Amino acid sequence: MGEKHNDFLSLNQTKLSMRNLITLILFLCLGCKSTTVEVSEVKKVESHDARSIISYLASDELSGRSTGSDGIEKAASYIEKRFMEVEIKPYFSTYRDAFDAKDKKGFNIVGYLEGTDPNLKEEVIIIGAHYDHIGIGRIVDNDSIANGANDNATGTAAVLLIADHFARSRSNKRSLLFALFSAEEMGLLGSKHLAQKLKDQNLNLYTMVNFEMLGVPLIEKDHKAFVSGYDLSNMAQKLNEYTGTDLIGKSEVAVKYNLFKRSDNYPFYNVFKKPCQTISSCDLTNFDFYHHVDDEIDKMDFNFMADFINELIPGIEKMSSTTSKEIVMHE
To answer: Which of 37, 66, 70, 72 is buried most, with the most CB atoms less than 10 Å from its CB?
Structure first.
């Protein structure tokens, strides 16, 4: 009787231990799921998401978003509110990174999302775009406001929508810095200021992806967008590999006009000597309203934008998660 009782106790203790083990495993699994949401569970970008952002930034209320104006102040407040709503933290003490823009007050808006990997989070990917435009342009049909829908409310929208995704999914192992630049139209002043500031602070930069004019599709191309400085690194090839698509290609027009040096990627490349490049779907052969008052939202293809961002996000996720730095400059 004693041996059978002891056997019974031993059996029940074993069952209890197994039950505790299973409970612990389930708890750990649920805990993991709470910090990193699968990509498929995160809401896809819809055309109306892009339209909503661009409609505000390119509205007459903002008067063309020239640096130092009341309009760009409204744009900056809007971007800050978007970051706060999804709990993207300020990178500095506030979201605003102030600088002098030819006797005007300029400020970049800089948000930060820490990576989930204890080692990889020390490496940073910058996702950027300029949110300023030229303000008032040459009058056409009694309209003088250069609203800058394509240039560059679309790039700004891309950054905000990508930030929304990662704030919800927490699928970035490397840290992400979301930078919206002012005074790009005055000679890349905002990005020059921020690039040098981050270099002086010894930022461990992996790569920088900048967005510029994503509102219209390329014409008769196999790819949806191009990367400036295509031959300088393997960024385009890696993004295509990561997304399983021919999403990013080369633009000979961009090469001809040296667009690599004409957007906010260039100051970061200058000081960090890392892959810092701009992605765009507009090489100016498919859009007639560059720095024109007719750069309006009615000319934007919001379905194209949403599709492009949805296809690109897995590439950014993979970029932020590889165990080694796979995107490199060519020798």
So the answer is: 72
Separation in Å, CA 167 to CA 114, 122, 132, 176: 10, 18, 24, 10
What are the tokens at 110?
């800089």
| Residue indicated by tokens 């393997």 | 234
Number of residues written out for the chain: 331
Q: Find out whether 50 and 157 touch, Cβ atoms under 8 Å.
A: yes
Is 166 strand, coil or helix? helix
Beta strand 124-130 pairing with 225-227: unpaired
**Cα 181 from Cα 184, distance rounded (Å):** 7
For residue 286, is the peptide bond before it cis, meaning its omega torsion is within 30 degrees of 0? no
pTM over 0.85: yes
3-state secondary structure 116-174: CCCCHHHCEEEEEEECCCCEEEEEECCEEEECCHHHHHHHHHHHHHHHHHHHHHCCCCC
Closest CA to 262 of 191, 177, 180, 162: 191
In angstroms, the CA 57 to CA 72 distance is 9
Tokens for 43?
Answer: 């809401």
**Cα 72 → chain centroid:** 20
**Highest mean predicted confidence (pLDDT) among 1-15, 21-35, 246-260:** 246-260
Closest CA to 295 of 106, 74, 108, 134: 134
